[in-house]
């Protein structure tokens, strides 16, 4: 019954949500999620229940209620890539045979999603999941072909998504999947001639629409995230690049500007079109930002307890205004969570929680 009610709400589209009042941009209390080791640093995500995925040292973690727990592995290095509204996590993990497999983590158990034959499969990666349990990602199969292919993971198999029609090339294989929402819209991308094209599907990748991008920078548009309304953020251009917001793939996207430098990168978006990411200052140094629709703000200037912190990159934001990302704490890479707080709290959240080896313990 609950899913039928949700389906009815989704069917009426953006009207009820658009009528609601979103969070007000205020200041934040920073939570130290844990030290990050290993490269490259993976984007963290947060759902509307305040559960955050993050990665460190070849292990994947969920952080919630001031504690992190290691979600395990299929046998080797594991990376969490997406988290659904129900707390299910998807990503990739190396199994005991040395194969990189797509997984879903649910109710404390990690399961291999199946996909191609383990005899020929070289790489799999589950990228995103939604309320309905759909999972999308990429697969690179064959003994010589490492080019990724956008797929749906269903019933123990991986099924290739439809090719996109891209002028003047005709049908082109979709290589990347970036996000998936509860309306079963998929955000994807492909590369032709060194330029990246962003694609949006309204039906789980059976048909694609090319996103127009920012005027003057639309020759290359790399997507990063999509909200429940199908609004998209990412980065437009090459050389000089800008964070963008697209509310309709058939219309020009909006250049969100910078914190004073030439470049910015959109990385996360919530249902109220708050966009988070990283932007260059006039000094060219990168800083984490939030754009709430009125302007872009350096998150370093919005933290009550920011001593010792340098926030470099915000990678996710939920509908309550909770922001996650990574930066430096006393010169060491750390993951963070920012809790919206108009006033400095009398009792700091998580004040008795410490981090040990990336796992928070009381």
Compact summary:
By secondary structure, the protein is mainly beta. It contains two helices and 32 strands.
Structural class: mainly beta
Largest sheet strand order: 1-30-29-28
Oligomeric state: single chain
Could you report the average pLDDT, rounded to the nearest whole number? 89
The gross shape turns out to be globular
Q: What's the tally of helices?
A: 2
- Computed over alpha carbons, the radius of gyration is 20 Å
Number of strands: 32
> Roughly what fraction of the amino acids lie in strands?
over 45%
Biggest sheet character: 4 strands, antiparallel
> Roughly how many Å apart are the termini?
38 Å
**Helicity level, as a percent range?**
under 10%
Low-confidence stretches: 1-19, 352-358
């Amino acid at each position: 019954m609950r899913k039928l009610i949700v389906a009815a709400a989704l069917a009426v589209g953006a009207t009820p949500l658009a009528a609601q009042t979103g969070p007000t941009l205020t200041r934040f209390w920073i939570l130290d999620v844990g030290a990050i080791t290993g490269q490259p640093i993976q984007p963290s995500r947060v759902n509307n229940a305040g559960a955050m995925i993050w990665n460190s040292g070849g292990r994947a973690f969920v952080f919630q209620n001031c504690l992190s727990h290691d979600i395990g592995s299929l046998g080797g290095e594991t990376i969490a890539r997406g988290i659904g509204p129900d707390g299910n996590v998807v990503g990739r993990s190396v199994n005991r045979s040395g194969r990189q497999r797509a997984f879903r983590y649910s109710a404390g158990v990690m399961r291999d999603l199946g996909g191609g034959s383990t005899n020929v499969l070289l790489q799999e990666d589950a990228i995103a999941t939604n309320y309905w349990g759909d999972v999308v990602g990429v697969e690179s199969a064959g003994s010589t072909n490492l080019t990724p292919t956008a797929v749906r993971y269903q019933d123990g198999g991986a099924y290739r998504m439809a090719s996109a029609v891209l002028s003047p090339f005709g049908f082109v294989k979709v290589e990347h999947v970036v996000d998936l929402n509860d309306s079963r819209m998929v955000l994807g991308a492909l590369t032709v001639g060194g330029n990246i094209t962003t694609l949006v599907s309204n039906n789980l990748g059976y048909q694609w629409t090319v996103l127009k991008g920012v005027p003057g920078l639309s020759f290359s548009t790399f997507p990063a995230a999509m909200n429940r309304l199908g609004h998209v953020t990412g980065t437009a251009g090459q050389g000089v690049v800008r964070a963008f917001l697209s509310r309709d793939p058939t219309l020009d996207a909006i250049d969100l500007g910078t914190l004073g430098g030439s470049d910015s990168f959109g990385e996360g978006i919530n249902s109220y079109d708050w966009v988070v990411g990283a932007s260059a200052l006039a000094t060219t140094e990168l800083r984490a930002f939030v754009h709430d629709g009125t302007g872009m703000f350096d998150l370093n200037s919005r933290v009550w307890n920011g001593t010792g912190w340098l926030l470099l990159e915000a990678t996710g934001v939920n509908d309550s205004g909770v922001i996650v990302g990574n930066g430096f704490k006393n010169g060491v890479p750390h993951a963070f969570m920012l809790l919206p707080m108009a006033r400095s709290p009398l009792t700091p959240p998580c004040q008795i929680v410490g981090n040990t080896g990336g796992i928070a313990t009381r």
